[in-house]
Design a protein that fits this description.
about 35% helix; alpha/beta; three-stranded parallel sheet; 13 strands
Length: about 375
């Protein structure tokens, strides 16, 4: 019983269902896929409950306590005695005829390829190809955790396939390997489907530059649909290490400026506890900036609402202290006062690496002087 299928939770068919059916059919067992209440009876030797998504309701909860029931899938991760495919099942050819072809569902015309089971490579498998497939879905969640030689070997077996799609999160760190990268870009990847990758390179600025350069290369040179790269806003404990406050602030500014220069979207991620820094008010804006105002420079993004309210240009707000009313304006003023050169270098960078014209019109000497006079010159 495929609970995701019964509840129409996803359009991607479950390869585990197809392989379990194929395995028992090859053993000569009588196998029935339950697609309706009418097919469910108590006359069975083994019942497989397959559930990959926790939001798929369990239609027959009494079956959970039956000794004949085998639970399979990540949707049962909080249950006891959850099983996975055996290696004998994993090597079987999927039973594609279980699911009808649907012209509106491209996944109904896909190959389902599996290379890994129990974190080790399947050396020999039955042929997993189907006729006239539009996609080739690599179902392994641990595909990118394999050794580099095994990833290369598996990619070589995919080079003739069309519409390759990885269900597992792609490792950006693995893609830094030239051999893996060269094989990856020569794959006929699925068009119009966004890549799903994980920034496992690092959170520091130099590592961020590697990740951003990689995403830019995939996007610009190879025209792939790349998602936002996620970076943590806070990487240290600011309460025990006050010096890391300035480090994290500068790191965020540098990452955003570099991403804007390379035209790569990033997502600055909140920590689990929002108030995780004694200076949190200097960090809370980064997520909004990266997600909604990424084409604007830091200074313009911070002043946008106030400038629009007053009907003024950004530099006009800074050049007249009577408009220094909101917290965001005061923070920009303070930052200019205490780290002018840094803000000039990174705070005016716009999308594409252009420098905002506002930098030529801001009276920095006036801002510094008035910041002291108005007691804004404080942390």
């Amino acid at each position: 019983m495929d609970l995701d299928l019964l509840n129409k939770t996803t359009k991607i068919f479950n390869y585990k269902t197809m392989k379990i059916f194929s395995y028992h059919e090859q053993l000569g067992d009588h196998v029935q896929l339950i697609t309706d209440d009418a097919f469910f009876t108590n006359n069975y030797d083994v019942l497989y409950l397959i559930r990959e998504y926790r939001n798929s309701p369990i239609l027959y909860p009494n079956a959970l306590d039956d000794d004949r029931t085998i639970l399979i899938g990540e949707g049962f991760q909080f249950y006891e005695n959850v099983k996975d495919l055996t290696r004998e099942m994993a090597v079987c050819r999927p039973k594609y005829s279980l699911f009808p072809e649907d012209p509106e569902n491209i996944y109904s015309r896909a190959n389902y390829a599996q290379f890994v089971q129990d974190k080790s490579v399947l050396l020999r498998t039955q042929d997993w190809h189907r006729n006239r497939a539009y996609l080739t879905i690599v179902v392994d969640k641990d595909f990118w955790k394999m050794s580099n030689p095994m990833i290369i070997k598996c990619m070589d077996s995919l080079k003739l396939e069309s519409g390759v799609l990885f269900l597992g999160t792609i490792s950006m760190k693995k893609l830094l390997n030239p051999e893996i990268f060269n094989r990856f870009i020569t794959l006929k990847l699925a068009k119009n489907l966004k890549l799903k990758y994980n920034n496992d390179i690092g959170e520091d600025y130099e590592s961020a530059k590697l990740a951003i350069n990689l995403a830019a290369k995939l996007k610009i040179q190879y025209h792939l649909n790349v998602p936002h790269i996620t970076f943590k806003i806070i990487t240290h404990n600011h309460f025990t290490d006050p010096n890391s406050i300035l480090y994290d602030f500068k790191r965020n500014m540098q990452i955003m400026a570099y991403a804007q220069t390379k035209r790569v979207r990033v997502n600055m991620k909140y920590p689990r506890l929002r108030q995780s820094s004694p200076r949190w008010y200097y960090f809370e804006f980064f997520k909004h900036w990266s997600n909604h105002r990424h084409t604007r420079s830091f200074v313009e993004a911070m002043l946008k609402d106030s400038a629009a309210f007053e009907g003024l240009a950004y530099y006009e707000v800074l050049n007249n202290d009577k408009y220094w009313v909101t917290d965001r304006i005061k923070r920009v003023v303070y930052l200019i006062a205490v780290m002018e050169n840094f803000i000039k270098e990174y705070g005016f960078v716009m999308w594409g690496g252009n420098i905002s014209n506002s930098i030529k019109l801001v009276d920095f000497e006036y801002v510094r002087r008035k910041a002291i006079e108005n007691y804004i010159f404080r942390p």
